[in-house]
Fold:
Amino acid sequence: MAGVGVAATVGLSLLGIPLALALGLIAFLLEFVPYLGPFIGVPAVLVALAAGPGDAAYVVLLYLGIHAAEGYVIAPLVDQRSVHLPPALGLVAQLLLGTLFGFLGLILAVPLAAFGMVLVQMLYVEDFLGERSGSPTSRHAGATHRR
Structure:
């Protein structure tokens, strides 16, 4: 959220759009709403439209770039570090659940993928295989046990 707000503020300032700080704050707050928030960022385009249609087009391109970077680069990397969810798994889950269940599937894709990973880790790896994945020694011991 903070990255989107800062990027929007800096980008709008560089484009010379008035009220860049307020519009960046709106982008920051709207980013809280997953998947829908970026599309509600219309105020920046309306303010830019008052300056001219060319400025509005640049603002649309700026917002598309910010949200593409956030959605395809930053969010998967944050998910990987915080939940240990591989970025490709998060994107595939969004693609599959979004296709199968529409907007609701898209919203719930990453939390369900993280839940599934934890469930597999606890039920299969720890209980069935008897390995603890939290410590490096248990992973190494499991590898020697399989040989």
